[in-house]
Amino acid sequence: MTQPTPSAQLRAALDLAERGIPVLPLREGKGPMGNCRACRKNACGGRPNMKTPGPCACPSPCHAWAAATTDLAVLTSTAWASAWRQAAAVAYHPGGTGLTVVDLDNADAIAWARQNLPATRTVPSTRGEHWIYLGTMTSPNAVRPGVDIKSLMSYARWLGPGTGTMAPLSDAVRALAVKEPTAARPATSAPTVSAPAGGGQCPHRSPAYLERGIAMAEQRIEDAPDGIHRTVFRMFLAVLSAHGRCGCLTETHIGRLFTAAQEKGESLRHCEEAWTNARTQLGM
Description:
- By secondary structure, the chain is an alpha+beta fold.
- It has helices spanning 8-18, 72-75, 78-86, 107-116, 171-174, 207-223, 228-243, 251-263, 268-281; strands spanning 23-26, 89-92, 99-104, 121-124, 129-134, 147-150, 156-157, 167-168.
- Strands 3, 4, 5, 6 and 8 form a five-stranded mixed beta sheet that branches. Strands 1-2-7 form a three-stranded antiparallel beta sheet.
């Protein structure tokens, strides 16, 4: 029986794995594949508990960065086949290959890096550049406007080998991890948006109605196979439309929605933008 032709993403992943670079598939929107049912919401306990670098034990590509592997048998396994059919790109675990990526998201961030960081190998990205250094460190996001760190317990999109000589990880880069987060992009995953003030008459017959609405939105986000940006916005819009004007919606409810979105690979910034856009569309 003729074997199916590997996708372009799988072929690229196998090439990288053969060179010792741990890889994983990315869905549309540059996020990792959602966890399998057994691992959903880390019900399996994580890998282990997602606190230390290392591979995921699940046969499916679960737990985002922890799924990255160089094992060709795993990459071509039946458990990963569906993920590769859906994959829009390939990511790698920089820390797993001894590297740190400084992700510069725009022209201003690039200009800042040229003035403050040692020159190293660079790779053009969609909106900016990846600067790649030899060495590993923690992976905080939003260390300054438009700058994220991708190293241990993180993943970066594979955009090519880049150009230039790779420099050792310097104190200037390590120091970014201990700087105070900017007000515009908090380093934590907690939402900075507020629940609507409400003030209208509550139409809900019981708190269970709100709980069902939040649980349904969480489930829809978790089950979305692709188009996660659109799904998150639609679910935020639906929750706000039903529960946003009477004052029943709390910061805890919003946190649950943001957590579900981030577990599917959405960034905090994209969650906040989707929430703001949904409120604007509803005139809140």
